[in-house]
Specification:
Rossmann fold; eight-stranded mixed beta sheet; 379 residues; alpha/beta
Length: 379
């Protein structure tokens, strides 16, 4: 199975070598897909990565797309992307390949090349968080998913920035060879955990980095430090030292989201951390992130990640943690999903055993008409 990575001058080195090493490692270890990894550019020859390192490529225009191919356009610097989408032979080759190959996709800002070729029209797509607004403006026909680290829409795959290309490649390896092989390759690449596509590319740390030099930096630090307390929009506004209207405008300008959505993302991100590193139950996690109950946590997870905390724990948590969330969801105790421990009151109300009379049958046997049982006691 051939993997065609498409590069150009100014391509991001990790966008190239992350997926290349994932597929290459699978090939070297004997994965059944038998990957053949190729790096091509228009005209072939060396291209220079964003780091300045030259990379040898073959001529893209000499390659004929095959039905079994996977074609991935890598990302690059802003000037390099502008040059790439203006390269008509590149765009035409990608557009033609998309109609023939098994999978076509992009890593990071390589989504702009797919967009220029019309491949993403009417589809959901991901790209680097810093380029989401630009991609939307560039091609309004695309539904840009600013949250997910990668998106699959039919045979079209797109990923967020840089290392998300490895997650995309591992998901493809899982589709081709099974989860066992994907886990082996992830372990070989020392990827701590294989992240599913729904996992957000926004963490509370990334949100803080985006606002690090802006007017919201101090307020975000206060909010992150007090998520377990009463942190609502008025508290956020006070921490920022501005009115709610000004806060709304600044959040949209600096973070690309409303204040309410920023708070929800921070809470979900903290909850994800707790699910992955502790044995806390649903109610405890909800309290630690400032939500009243597990139901509100579930709604926040669905809106932000598209999954429930229970499903997230099933992927990233231990069996014990998954069991805890399943039990909390169904109203059970610690005895397992769906099983309820009897309360003390229920134990006290337990029906007593029937009393027996000396030398005769017990009352229940007299009522039922069954043969009497004599007492073994001596009179």
């Amino acid at each position: 199975m051939r993997i065609v990575l498409i590069g150009y001058d100014g391509a991001q080195g990790l966008d190239v070598f992350g997926p290349a090493e994932a597929f290459g490692t699978a090939a070297r270890r004997g994965a059944p897909a038998g990957y053949d990894v190729r790096l091509a550019s228009v005209g072939g020859g060396p291209i220079r990565a964003t780091s300045g390192i030259p990379i040898v490529t073959e001529d893209l225009l000499t390659l004929t797309p095959r039905q079994s191919d996977t074609v991935l356009v890598v990302g690059g610097g802003e000037a390099a992307i502008r040059a790439a989408i203006a390269t008509r032979p590149l765009v035409r080759w990608v557009a033609r390949a998309a109609r023939l190959v098994r999978r076509v996709g992009s890593v990071c800002s390589g989504a702009f090349v797919l967009a220029q070729a019309g491949i993403l029209d009417g589809r959901r797509a991901a790209t680097h968080w810093s380029a989401c607004a630009r991609l939307t403006a560039f091609r309004p026909q695309i539904t840009v998913d600013a949250q997910s680290i990668f998106v699959r829409d039919g045979h079209v795959w797109t990923s967020a920035g840089v290392t998300a290309g490895i997650d995309l490649a591992l998901a493809m390896i899982e589709e081709d060879c099974g989860r066992d092989w994907a886990d082996r390759i992830a372990a070989q690449l020392v990827v701590y955990v294989r992240r599913p596509g729904f996992q957000s590319q926004f963490s509370d740390a990334l949100i803080a980095q985006r606002a690090g030099s802006g007017s919201l930096a101090g307020a975000l630090e206060k909010v992150r430090a007090n998520l377990a307390g009463r942190v609502d929009l008025p508290a956020f506004s006070r921490a920022a030292g501005m009115s709610l209207r000004t806060l709304h405008r600044r959040c949209l300008q600096e973070l690309g989201a409303t204040p309410a959505k920023v708070l929800e993302r921070l809470r979900v991100e903290r909850a994800r951390l707790l699910l992955g590193t502790t044995e806390l139950g649903a109610k405890q996690v909800s309290g630690r992130v400032g939500l009243e109950n597990p139901a509100r946590l579930t709604r926040a997870f669905r809106r932000t990640l598209g999954v429930t905390p229970r499903d997230y724990a099933a992927v990233f948590g231990t069996a014990a943690r998954t069991k805890t969330f399943a039990s909390a969801r169904r109203g059970g105790g610690g005895g397992g999903p769906g099983r309820r421990r009897p309360t003390r009151g229920a134990a006290r109300r337990k029906r007593p055993a029937p009393r027996r009379r000396r030398g005769g049958a017990c009352r229940c046997h007299r009522r039922s008409g069954s043969a009497p049982r004599t007492s073994s006691r001596r009179s």
